[in-house]
Amino acid sequence: MSVSFVIGFAVFLVLMAGLVVAVVRFAIRQGRRRLPPSDSRPAAERAESDLDEPSPSALVDDPDERRDR
Fold first, then answer.
1. How confident is the prediction for the chain on average, in pLDDT?
2. For residue 48, what are the CA distances in angstroms to 16, 36, 37, 39, 51?
3. What is the rounded distance in angstroms from the CA atom of residue 30 to the CA atom of residue 36?
4. What digits encode the pLDDT tens for the residues 6-46?
5. What's the CA angle centered on 21, arms 17 and 25, to 5 degrees?
6. Contact, 67 vs 60, CB < 8 A?
7. Chain-centre distance of CA 42, in angstroms?
8. N or C: the chain end with fewer CB closer than 10 Å?
9. What gap in Å lies between CA 20 and CA 25, rounded to an integer?
């Protein structure tokens, strides 16, 4: 293998490692930025109560749906 290929490949690997570090640091920053849940109930209780309420989009009648039959 030629020396220029080895040097070019080494530079490529360094750039890829820098990209990985930047992406990981960005993901960690975004993860820390999330706000804690405002509800004081445990997560399991919140999930159960959310299932009891229908979503607003579930209540809308789609006129296109009737035409397909």
1. 77
2. 44, 19, 15, 13, 5
3. 13
4. 999 999 999 999 999 999 999 999 888 776 666 566 666 66
5. 170
6. no
7. 23
8. C
9. 9
Q: Could you please report the per-residue DSSP string of the chain?
A: --HHHHHHHHHHHHHHHHHHHHHHHHHHHHHHHSPPPS--S-HHHHHHHHHHSPPGGGGS--HHHHHT-
Nearest to 41 by CA among 50, 33, 32: 50
Residue 11: half-sphere exposure toward Cβ, Cα within 13 Å? 6
Q: Is the pTM of this model over 0.85?
A: no
Euclidean distance between CA atoms 57 and 23, whole angstroms: 35
- Residue type at 58? A
Contact 16, 7 (CB under 8 A): no
